[in-house]
Structures are given as structure tokens and as C-alpha cells.
Predict the 3D structure of the following.
Amino acid sequence: MQRIIGAVEKYRDLILEAERFVWAHPETGFKETVTSGYMAGKFRELGYELTMAEGITGFYTVIDTGRPGPEVLVLGELDSIICPAHKDADPVTGAVHSCGHNAQCAALLGVAAALTEPGILDELSGRIRLCAVPAEELLEIEYRGKLRDQGKIKYFGGKTEFLHRGYFDGVDLAFMVHTSGSYSVTGGSVGCMSKKIIYKGTAAHAGGSPWSGRNALYAATCGINAVNAIRETFAEPDIIRVHPIITHGGDMVNAIPETVTLESYVRGSSFDAIVKANKKVNRALTGAAYSIGTNIEIVDAPGYGPLHNDRQMMKVAEDAAKLVLPDYSFGSSNHIGSGSTDMGDLSAIMPVVHPYSGGARGKGHGNDYEIVDPVAACVDCAKWQVAMLTLLLKDGGALGTKIAAEYDAPFKSKEEYLAYIDALNCEGDRIEYREDGTAVLK
């Protein structure tokens, strides 16, 4: 473990410089051209050959020890969020790393650098796949829908897209460390369905003849209120969260809004819970449209699967932290968080763990989030990840092989999982108005 610590410390300046560079160049999902290019350049300087994602951002590289054993995937996320109120937000796009992904990138670079040091791989078996992955934050749904319509992506999440493309084929286990306020690991988090909702009314002069219109904005606000009215029907163990926003509310103040667009998630602790709650939400949204006499188009697309951290992988994370980071307290619990991540899609088919490192302060996705201890968030985090790799791949990869063999995956294969989430896609108008004044709600 002292060898690991020394290998990472050698690249302290490289790691800390990367954290600041990525922080200063925030980009949202599938737009991370500067960040992806920077990371790829640093990896190449370390001597790595990369497989670049075709037509989108991100890349991976595979390190083969030359000895048989499992393959472990280590990830770092490239994208930022949007929070224009943050002091460091991009003045044009509002993008900012109020999510800590800049620290993830720096730590991943630290792992890559440490693994080039003599002796680090000598006692390990199997393969290590290092991946800089795009688009974890599930936002700008309309933009990603256009990418999908153009055939550039199939899935809105970067890990799900990489999984679909075969970039994770051959991987047996995976982990990724997210930046937070302390070192810890929990049982997992909820999954989600992504939604684009379009209320379709009729334009008219707002002052001269408003009775000639059908107000899509009023229909949308009725829809939001209808969803609020059914919240008490969501069972607490299902951890349902629904949080729509209006992304287009009309075109000009003196016209009845003809088209109003919303984006939302329906989150839940299981796919069954998500599907059940989504039906209720769609019914509420559609009923509101009917009450105003507008139509409504709902585009449902799979978001992320529920994350189930493997218990043995949680123990690996805890043990590694005790070995290389004895000065930090480490928390472990079975708590299921109400956020979502596309690590959940990987947990559907392989054992994963998604723990947290310290070093950040403020509200995640808020205007006060910042990295206040970059050593903890990046340098020490890299040590921790190399230690996890060591525990999994030492002794012929015995522990990694055991965990992979004993994992009871919710789905038997990538193909089975992707077929399941593909079946969640549903889109189209939800009301058929008839000439006799009746309507059919779908």
C-alpha cells in the first residue's frame, strides 16, 4: 500500500492541475469536447492507446496484466450540470461542475498515472479498463432526443450508451467514486424515467379574442398541479420523486400560448415502482390537457436503472479506504438515496460500487458547491481507487473472480437488460378528439 501511495503522490501536480482545468471548462453531456480532448491528451502523454467513442465524447483504454483474471472497469464522468447562479458558471451556457465530476476526472487521471509506475501491476492479474464517460447528468432531454433522432446516440446516459455500443464488453466488475463531503458508501439509489411533455393548444390574440384559443400554458400548469395532487398515493418504500420544469412556456405575451414544453423525471426504487408511478403521472398530465381542451404529447424514454451496490464491493471500498486513508473516517450504510445515476444500468448486469470521496462543500447541483480540499477529492481518491483495484486483482484476481461469480444480477445479460429498457419507450399524442365532441384518452 505504501507503493500505491507513493505512485499516486508522484503525480500530485498533474492531478491537481487537471481538477482546475476541468472545473474551468464545464460542458454538459455529449458536449464535453474540450474536457474529453484534454483528458485524452493527458492519457496519451502517459503512454496509453485509447479507443475513442465514435461520434460522441469519451474514451476508454484497457490495461492487460498478462495474467488471467477478471476485468475491472474504473470510471470518471466528464460532464457538468447547469446552474447559472453559481459564481463560476460559464457566462454563456450556465454550465458548472456543481456535481464534482471535475474531481472525478482528475482522480481517474491519477489512477491512470499511478498504474504506469514500475511494480504497481506486478502482483495483479486480469485486466483494468479505465473509462472517461460522458453524459451522466440526465438533463437537456430535448437536445438528447434530437441526437437520438439523428442516430448519434440511442440512450440518454453515457454509461448506458457505452454499454450498448459494446465498450464495456468483457467487463466483470465496475466502480466509480463520486465527490462528496466525506468518504462513505451506501446501498445504492433510485432509478428514473425521463419525460418530455408537450402541451398543444391553439394560438389566438390574448387581448382581442382569447376565447378563440386553447391555452397550452394553463393546461401545463393544471398538469403540474394534477401531479402534485397524486403525490400522497406514492408508497414511501418506492421512493417516488417527480419534478417537472417548463422549458418553453410560450412565444409572446400577447398571444395565447400554443405550445408549452416540460421535462421531468419519475424516479423510484425499482423498475416496477417507476412504471406504476409513471402511469399515474401520465394520467394526471393527460387529464389536465383534456380539461382545457388541448392535446398532449408525452415522450417517455428510459432514464437510469436503480443502483444496487454489491455488498462485497462495498466491503472492498471500505477495506481499501482503511488501508490507504487511515486518517479519514469512513461511513457505510444500507441507505438508498433518491438521486439517480447510470451506474444503476451497470448494476443491472454486473457487481458495482459507487462510493463517495470527501473534499467538496455545498449543495450538490447548487450555487454554493465547490471543491475545498482537492487533495482529498482527487489525490487521495486516486490512492483509494488503486487500492480497490489491488484488493480485487491480487492473488490471481481471487476476490474479483469470487464477487463476479456470486453476483445475482437482476438481468442475465446486456442484451436482456437493454431489451427491457427499450420496451419502456413510448411516445405520441395522448388524446383523440372526435367530431361528436367526445374524446379517447390514451
Observations:
- Residues 297 and 429 are 4 Å apart (CA to CA).
- The chain has two domains: 2-189+306-410, 192-304+425-441.
- The first helix runs from residue 2 to 9.
- The domain at 192-304+425-441 is CATH 3.30.70.360 (Alpha-Beta Plaits).
